[in-house]
Amino acid sequence: MAFSRISLVVLLLFIITFHVVESRSVLGDIVMNNGRSLLQYPPQLNCNSACQTRCSRNWRYKMCLKMCGACCSKCNCVPPGTGQDTRNVCPCYDQMRNPHGQLKCP
Length: 106
Description:
Blueprint: H1 2-31, H2 47-54, H3 61-75, H4 91-95
Helix pairs in contact: 2-3
Signal peptide: 1-23
Family: Belongs to the GASA family.
Pfam families: GASA (PF02704)
């Protein structure tokens, strides 16, 4: 009877140790990925530079910069290029509307 209790305790300690060791590797994967924690917010986008590129060919440059800056600060994303075909790259940017239901972001 004593042998089975000792075996049970050893087995239980082995399972607990294995679980702790395994969870540390998962925690390490969560904490560091390419030198940055996955639990942190992504780095802040340089909205001025991104919006200058986005609005470079817009006929209302100043208005475009103003609206793009507002959208960028809220979404932390600006679609690449100058055309409407890349809006879907940033869903938040793409779905923002003004009070009249029109697209807010250029």
